[in-house]
């Protein structure tokens, strides 16, 4: 294909061409590898291409009979281990680390017919707002390479936006699917709890807030990924739920008239005026589609919720780092191999008591019940994905290479930038970022829709309705400066 043809295809369109006999999975793999080679020097978004899977897409068990029929796919270097492959988690400490076994989701992805071609960048352990550490790599935004992609699914967002692949893996413990999707002009769905398994190494209980998912350029690709890859593994601590109707079928018709609450004043946090104007513009579009839209603020103790979220992050990341250290026979993070904020997180959180976690969980419960009550009256909460503009490369205050001596202050600064995404993780409710707006710096701005528990299909229905209303022209029909067809 020409690069224009390549860029014009989403994943399902490429799969249709495979099924029609017009192209083979190995040809798609070769073109994706060439696309990565063409765009990655400007973006620093791919850590490694699996050359053996370019040569032989079936080598690791990919099922070409799956809905994606051999379409190339990139895996974030965090969260879904691949047996025998490197998984270095954006960390100098983890250089050379190879997974001993596949995760359950890796198998589902291959069964869906996705050819996992390589690894994409992430900040160290996924614990900050951008993959921007010059000692490891600094991933640039294809829309404006002076800026980051945000994070933590940094490289995946950059590669899908640049047109190198139509679909890539992303994870979300507080916005890490939605935030880079927003800054890269992509569709990014954070699902409800009980959808994608993290077996066998963790579960929704041990992870509590972290969710798997993908970045895409079309609603139907995200819906097809959801349908094909959802489901629990043996031994899940809670039942995994299945909708009455597959998302891929549901998105073919418009949702009913929805009650949509526009909101950007969240406790101590506010969006910049331009983002508020873009949110209002999105609200007018939804109103023109027949929905009831009004300004509302969820009646939630947001200060208590963010304090609990901070406790969760510090204690979770400290235990993650502790387990990685123990596997290497280390009793503390070595300076120079672990980034400064992650060392301070380990110091602050490794001794977290059950009483601390109990109080955190009580605050989670209160916030979740309050959001649940609000979402009885409103079907959707609409916010900007972020409150402040996407940082320029090298803005260290949001990064784990920051010299901030106070971990609590570092997290408070992070929430000022990203207040709207983390609480969906806390509550276990779905949220989606849609590429409906632009920032003044030329970087896209995602508009986030949040819904009640298990309303994932409704969010995708609304997203598909908007996509049709825009005639498929997300990002005002524009392309990034760094793009495969540029």
Main β sheet profile: 8 strands, mixed
User: Which term fits the overall shape?
Assistant: globular
Query: Beta-sheet strand percentage?
Result: 5-15%
CA distance, first residue to last residue: 15 Å
Strand order, largest beta sheet = 6-8-7-12-13-11-9-10
Would you tell me the overall average pLDDT?
Answer: 97
How many helix segments?
A: 17
Radius of gyration: 21 Å
Helix content: 25-40%
The structure class reads alpha+beta
Poorly predicted tracts of residues: none
Task: Give the topology string: H per helix, E per strand.
Answer: HHHEHEHEEEHEHEHEHHEHEHHHEHHEEH
Total beta strands: 13
Description:
By secondary structure, the protein is an alpha+beta fold. Helix content is 39%, strand content 14%. It contains 17 helices and 13 strands. An 8-stranded mixed sheet has the order 6-8-7-12-13-11-9-10, with helices on both faces. A 3-stranded mixed sheet has the order 1-3-2, with helices on both faces. Strands 4-5 form a two-stranded antiparallel sheet. The chain is globular and about 60 Å long. The chain starts with a helix and ends in a 17-residue tail after the last helix. The mean pLDDT is 97.
């Amino acid at each position: 294909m020409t690069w224009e043809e390549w860029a014009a295809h989403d994943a399902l369109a490429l799969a249709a061409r495979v099924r029609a006999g017009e192209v083979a999975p190995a040809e798609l793999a070769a073109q994706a590898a060439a696309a990565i080679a063409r765009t990655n020097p400007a973006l620093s978004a791919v850590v490694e291409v699996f050359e053996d899977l370019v040569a032989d897409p079936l080598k690791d068990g990919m099922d070409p009979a799956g809905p994606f029929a051999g379409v190339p796919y990139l895996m974030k270097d965090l969260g879904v281990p691949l047996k025998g492959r490197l998984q270095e988690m954006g960390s100098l400490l983890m250089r050379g680390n190879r997974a001993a076994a596949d995760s359950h989701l890796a198998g589902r992805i291959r069964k869906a017919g996705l050819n996992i071609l390589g690894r994409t960048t992430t900040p160290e352990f996924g614990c900050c707002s951008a993959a921007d550490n010059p000692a490891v790599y600094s991933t640039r935004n294809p829309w404006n390479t002076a800026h980051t992609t945000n994070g933590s699914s940094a490289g995946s967002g950059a590669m899908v936006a640049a047109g190198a692949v139509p679909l890539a893996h992303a994870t979300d413990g507080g916005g890490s699917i939605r935030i880079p999707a927003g800054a890269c002009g992509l569709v990014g769905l954070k699902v409800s709890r009980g959808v994608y398994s993290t077996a066998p190494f963790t579960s929704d209980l041990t992870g509590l807030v972290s969710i798997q998912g993908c970045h895409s350029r079309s609603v139907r690709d995200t819906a097809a990924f959801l349908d094909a890859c959802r489901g629990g593994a043996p031994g899940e601590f809670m039942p995994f739920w299945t909708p009455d109707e597959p998302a891929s079928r549901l998105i073919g018709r418009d949702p009913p008239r929805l009650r949509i609450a526009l909101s950007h004043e969240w406790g101590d946090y506010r969006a910049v005026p331009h983002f508020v104007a873009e949110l209002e513009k999105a609200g007018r579009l939804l109103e023109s589609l027949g929905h009831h839209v009004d300004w509302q603020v969820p009646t939630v103790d947001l200060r208590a919720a963010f304090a609990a979220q901070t406790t969760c992050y510090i204690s979770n990341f400290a235990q993650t780092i502790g387990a990685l250290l123990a596997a290497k026979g280390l009793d503390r993070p070595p300076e120079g191999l672990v980034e400064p904020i992650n060392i301070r997180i380990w110091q602050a959180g490794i001794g977290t008591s059950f009483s601390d976690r109990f109080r955190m969980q009580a605050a989670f419960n209160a916030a979740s019940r309050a959001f649940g009550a609000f979402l009885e009256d409103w079907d959707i909460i609409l916010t900007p994905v972020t409150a402040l503009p996407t940082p320029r490369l090298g803005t260290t205050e949001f990064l784990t290479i920051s010299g901030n001596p106070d971990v609590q202050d570092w997290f408070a600064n992070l929430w000022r930038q990203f207040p709207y995404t983390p609480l969906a993780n806390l509550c276990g409710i779905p949220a989606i970022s849609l590429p409906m707006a632009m920032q003044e710096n030329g970087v896209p701005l995602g508009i986030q829709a949040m819904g009640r528990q298990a309303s994932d299909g409704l969010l995708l229905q609304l997203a598909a309705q908007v996509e049709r209303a825009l005639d498929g022209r997300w990002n005002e029909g524009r392309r990034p400066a760094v793009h495969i067809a540029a």
